[in-house]
Write a structure and sequence with these properties.
heterodimer; A: 100 residues; alpha+beta; YaeB-like fold; five-stranded mixed sheet; 3 helices; 5 strands; globular; B: 151 residues; mainly alpha; Methane Monooxygenase Hydroxylase, Chain G, domain 1; 5 helices; flat
């Protein structure tokens, strides 16, 4: 399970999300959406920025046989994502325990 | 008289006292190939037994269920062990990917069977449905742009 190395490739990175993830993001209202927008602004510069507290989700990484990561979007709200080459794919947004 | 060195027994039919000697003559890769073949055969034989004793057994009892669980675990462990040994070998010019892929496929089938038959009552899958759906969409290439930030 190779760890992605986005260092030095930030400008080449492409950011995509699943339709469900986008729907969940658009469903956020008020302050949570504002916080999410601010967090994704950082995320799109560097998903491993320390402010996002990005960490590996071991259980999901084992099950899906690839490195699955979690970034803090707002409070308990996390984005689960993976890196495939130069594409960062956000899979889901939620407050599920497994993303903590 | 035939000398042993000229015409050795195949290890499988050699007397028990000779097996370790013959194993020593084989390289690690060949030994693993032999273990792989034995494991595949074990899985196939177990499939027959599972069908007879568990899946299609009208008299299935607690002992059958326990043995089913026991043998599924044993087969998974043995397969994972052979895969691990292949991956640890890392010998130049020796391709192990196909062996490991075949083992992974069979272990996954065994694991699925274990989950279907022996998942504890009340077990709740910790993986959210939204994540599973997201991974399925991503696998199909169904990806979208990030939405614009709300003003």
């Amino acid at each position: 399970m190779p760890k992605p190395d986005p260092k030095g490739k930030k400008s080449e990175m492409v950011f995509r999300m699943t339709p469900g993830c986008r729907k969940a993001l658009e469903a956020l209202t008020g302050q949570q959406r504002e916080q999410a927008d601010a967090a994704f602004k950082i995320f799109k510069v560097d998903p491993f920025d320390p402010r996002l507290k990005t960490h590996k989700i071991n259980k999901l990484s084992a099950r899906y046989k690839r490195l699955i990561l979690s970034a803090t979007i707002a409070g308990d709200l996390k984005a689960a994502f993976y890196v495939d080459g130069n594409t960062v794919v956000s899979v889901d947004i939620g407050t599920h325990d497994i993303y903590k | 008289m035939t000398k042993l060195a000229e015409k050795p027994f195949p290890r499988e039919i050699a007397p028990p006292s000779h097996r370790e000697w013959l194993r020593e003559q084989e390289d690690a890769y060949s030994q693993l190939e032999t273990q792989f073949a034995a494991w595949i055969k074990d899985v196939a034989c177990s499939e027959e037994i599972f069908k007879r004793q568990v899946r299609e057994n009208p008299e299935m009892n607690d002992s059958d269920v326990r043995q089913h669980r026991m043998h599924l675990c044993r087969l998974m462990m043995a397969g994972e062990h052979v895969a691990f040994e292949f991956l640890s070998l890392n010998e130049e010019g020796k391709s192990v990917e196909n062996y490991v892929r075949l083992i992974d496929e069979k272990v996954e089938a065994l694991r699925t069977e274990f989950i279907e038959w022996h998942t504890p009552e009340g077990f709740a899958d910790p993986v959210p449905d939204s994540f599973k759906e997201g991974m399925r969409d991503a696998k199909k290439g169904k990806l979208v742009e990030f939405p614009d930030a709300k003003a």
